[in-house]
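Reopening closed ticket. The problem is back. First fold of the pair:
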Amino acid sequence: MVVQDIQQFAEIRPKARAYFCYLFHKNLPNHLPSVSIESLTARLLKIRGDLQGLEATYVLDAAGNQVTPTYLKNGKKEEDIGASRSTRAYYYRAMHERRCTITDPYPSLLNDELTVTASEPIFDEHGEIVYVACIDMPLAQVLRIAHPMALESVSGRFFRIAYGVFTVVLALVSLLLFVKGIEGFLSYGMGHYERIEIKDIFEATILLTLSLAILDLVKTLFEEEVLGRPKSDPASSIHKTMVRFLGSIIIALSIEALMLVFKFAMTEPHMLVNAIYIIGGVAMLLVGLAVYIRFTNLGERH
């Protein structure tokens, strides 16, 4: 998926740049007294032959004008000699940084697919940039090379399917809890709600709260791991999901403790200590959640 591919590219960008820089340094002549366009073109065509999936190669001069045709992966070429590329990121970044660079993904003019361009400045013996060698490669191919866990890989698809299966099962559990939560009310029939006992209301509230907590977890897993929703801050996303889930559990346990207090106070006063134990456990969970939120927020600010 496009969104998750872009996110994965942001993670593996240093590896991708290192790979392209290695190809440039290994194959292209640089810092030599005389570098001809013909020799650069021959070396770029060699890279095109060796690098599966490469989309196009071409050479720019120091002013950003294209001085060779655009050599495509299928052996064809486009006569773009003289076209100005001085406003393109792959040109001015290579000129400014004076080193091998790699662009962000952008729609290719050749096929409208997301493409990444790697560029390498070519220096003469005086350290002046005379040419900029460029290669275009589809984003999907870059991910296959530099990211072993890309969605298009076998293992990537496996984990995506696994997350999908787990979310479906958890969604069914949430549905069962929801049905069980309202089953007690439905058993009284229409028009007989005055016979509903307080105990049934407490139990239904606990089940519905747990159902909501699991459904919220399912929503997060499905959107982020299966659909590939962008995560601007993965740590913050996990933090919010954890807080909501633990909060739902604390609410359910608090309701259970309150229900037991009412029940034991009326029927078995000597059992009130068990309710107190649950209340103590809820208090400890609240303290632990507060500490977790405190340290997590501190970590995000730093």
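Second fold of the pair, where the issue appears:
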Amino acid sequence: MEILLERYKDLVPDRYLVTEERLAKMINVLVHRQYTLRVFMDYVYSHHNLSAIVRSCDAVWVWWLYYRHQKQLRLNDEVTMWAHKWLLIDYVEDIKDFYKSIKDQGYQIVVTTLDQDSKDFREIDYTKPTLIVVGNEVDWVSKESIDFADEKVIIPMYGMSQSLNVSVATAVILYEAQRQRQIAGMYDSPTFPKDLIIKILYKWAFEDIIKNKS
């Protein structure tokens, strides 16, 4: 703990209301979060699946998630284990504008879909700035997602079923992305801008504490 706080002392906010151990854990999470690995939940209706995806994203240091369908995002606290408190979750109003913005930022759009030209998900280079798009298990992803896809992927199935539960599928792909990024050394130094880390730490360790006590 002391070593980590000393190493990242320039990130410590001026004011905080948590223990140094808690602060060190917050810093450790933020310096490993992947700014350039994001997930878009395209019409994932089930609040259980949404919640499970959120928890998986937190587990592999993803920070930024997007969703659409219902503006009021319904999450199950017992499923997320409060992981959503530590993530940025944005609602997508206009999907075409959203995808154009993502592409303008240099991201590849990797869409999960059962098409003839879909690749094995392990063939994709996830060390690139990547947006992973997943859909619901009935209608899959939207036509707009297919149109904007740079890569279409599947998870090979060897039994009678043709697909995994969407939350399970998302976790499988995310752990492949995490594996590739770890091998590439992308967790060795922060990917977030320094000022953003400081801003988030101040919110977590000071503002949120004040808010919860009021």
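Update: turned out to be a display glitch only; the data is intact. The CA atoms of residues 64 and 183 lie 22 Å apart. Residues 1-9+16-33+192-214 form one domain. Please close again.
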